[in-house]
Amino acid sequence: MKTLPDQSFGKLWNISFGFFGVQIAYALQSANISRIFSTLGADPHDLSYFWILPPLMGIIVQPIIGVLSDKTWCRFGRRIPYLFIGALVAVIVMCLLPNAGSFGMSVSMAMVFGLLSLMFLDTSINVAMQPFKMMVGDMVNEKQKGLAYSIQSFLCNAGSLVGYLFPFIFTWIGISNIADKAGTVPDSVIYSFYIGAAILILCVIYTTVKVKEIPPKEYAEYHGIAKDSETEKVNMFKLLVKAPKAFWTVGLVQFFCWSAFMFMWTYTNGSIAANVFNAPETANHLLDTGSPQYQAAGNWVGVLFAVQAIGSVIWAAVIPFIKNRKFAYALSLILGGIGFISVNFIHDQYLLFASFLLIGCAWAAMLALPFTILTNALSGGHMGTYLGLFNGTICVPQIVAAVAGGWILRAFTVEGSVPPEVYMLVVAGILLIIGAICVSIIKEKKEA
To answer: What are phi and psi of 376, to 5 degrees?
Structure first.
């Protein structure tokens, strides 16, 4: 089997550059979905259920994209056609979602429209996102995969930083952060989605133009694929049975990590609004989502998530210097767990920077190390399929957390008081620490 040649830094950068735009879209979604649906009128106890759709679409779509792209080849390549189509659909939906309350529909219809838009947005983001990870597996040798995924992690966090800060920046330059009427989303959020959509399509066009994927014959030589396997029918269940131990052991760690971050995305807005900005209550003893304090907290959550992205970029540069990969993984998750738990004890908006810098350490490890460990353990012609299946270790925990979130929140809620969402971040911290303990059972050995 031939070995893939080393690639220049510029080529590794081009392979992942479109990920910058995709991550802006993902950051806008993750930082603003709870804010958008709360503004439309969602009950905070039911808020986690709105988050079921994104991972549910991911667990359906990404394995399919993996299987199809493994069998695809055209003049544009094998992975690139999927990422381009996914990005194009995402751009359209990004222009519709924040306007869910602006089309004169009733509250219930606006919710339905918002949910359908969210479903299509996350589906298209998943279609656009996964090919970038697959192209690294396809085109980069084992020696350079750590660097390639580190570049991807950097671009991911840079995109997150931009997406998270957009509403804050637009408010700072004078765009309204309070909606004209109840049930509609502020212009600062709407314009953020518009600009994010434009950047997304430009970044994806850049990667499409700059990257030339490996032709099928060469790909087969580099990845040890026999001719008869090119027409082999793919049975995903059989592939799961044959999956290397790294697939399952890393997957266990992923379960705790992604459950924790689902709680962060769902409950940080309410936590910061109640715990730091003292948002007023409505007659039903729920947070007044139309109040200036709640919307200011929504902007500040974007800033905190941006701080998390900065922490992630810094820590991603540190990780390669830690020779023991499993130790780096476990240490990162412990630091993130401490960051989550500390939010419960901080009531100053600026002191929260320290908490979210620590959370960024966990995020950096989650973006780079699982895929490095897994792709180094894989060989043969099912790279895309396995990476698509591996996405289940990201989606399943989010679905479980979304279903369980409302139940856990009710357990912490005293009748007649504002739901203590901040406790959900403590739960997230505990989950990350459990994940760090599970790192010890990861098997990194390469298997046939």
So the answer is: -70, -20
Tell me the β-bridge partners of 77. 74
Burial class for 130, CB neighbours closer than 10 Å (0-12, 13-18, 19+): buried
Asked if 214 contacts 138 with a C-beta cutoff of 8 angstroms, the reply is yes
Q: Which residues contact 251 (CB under 8 A, 6 or more apart)?
A: 390, 392, 393
The C-alpha atoms of residue 388 and residue 445 are separated, in whole angstroms, by 21
Token pair for 287: 């947070």
Q: Tens digit of pLDDT per residue, the chain (448 long)?
A: 678 888 899 999 999 999 899 999 989 988 888 888 887 877 766 777 777 877 887 778 877 887 788 788 888 888 899 989 999 999 999 999 888 877 778 878 888 888 888 888 888 888 888 788 888 888 888 788 878 887 888 888 889 889 988 999 999 999 988 877 777 888 999 999 999 999 999 999 999 999 988 888 887 877 776 655 555 555 667 777 777 888 889 999 999 999 999 999 888 888 888 888 888 877 665 777 778 888 888 889 989 998 998 998 899 888 888 888 899 999 999 999 999 999 988 889 999 999 999 999 999 999 878 888 887 777 656 767 777 788 788 889 989 998 888 888 777 766 655 456 778 899 999 999 999 999 999 877 655 4
Q: What is the pTM of this model?
A: 0.75
Domain limits, the chain:
9-223+234-441
Q: Which CATH superfamily is domain 9-223+234-441 in?
A: MFS general substrate transporter like domains (1.20.1250.20)
